[in-house]
Amino acid sequence: FYRIYEIKAENKDIPVFTDKPYLIVIMFLGNLMFYHLNTVTLSISIIDLRSKIYCLKQLGFLISPKKISYLRERKLYPTFNIFDPVTIKTWCSLRKVINEYGRKYTLRSNFNVTVIVIFYLIVIAILVVQLLGIVTAYSNRLLMIVFEFESVLALIIFLFMLLQGAYINSQYMIHKNLLKKNKTIISDFSRLSYLYVGKDAIEPDNYI
After folding, report:
1. Can you tell me the mean pLDDT for 68-97?
2. Which whole-number Å values give the CA distances from 73 to 28, 68, 165, 180, in the listed order?
């Protein structure tokens, strides 16, 4: 409510209460609602990304014979039987479900985030023009501080979302590497099954 008080042009030392305080209140509430809406939209998008990351981690655990130490997540379900074709197809179906679930909402969320980021980029461009002194139409310092805070916070949240998206892409590479390892295990077991089972099975000296 700092704009409720105005400064007289003839005497800058005497603050005067504005004759239209309701306009200031309406602007304040409008900006608060807009800021709240943007923050909620970005927060929901982050929650959606975190949920997908969690599901992809658990999906990787299902096909990993050993614990994936670099994934800081608790394994909830036992490893699938990688020698069963039905189980492998089920895993592929689960992966498709996770990728397709909520796709329409994700598209709407991405559109909303894009609009918000473009808006704050325009605000940042205006602030830069103000700071450089090219345009001084809106030179209220307190108002600029408010816009600077909102813009920086929105960009920080957006950068965090980009990192989450990159982490989702890294999960695909983790799954690909796990499938390659499982393919090697299955091929080795198929070609040299007599070394693992049967009367002539070899007893390992080191179980590690």
Report:
1. 82
2. 43, 9, 18, 22
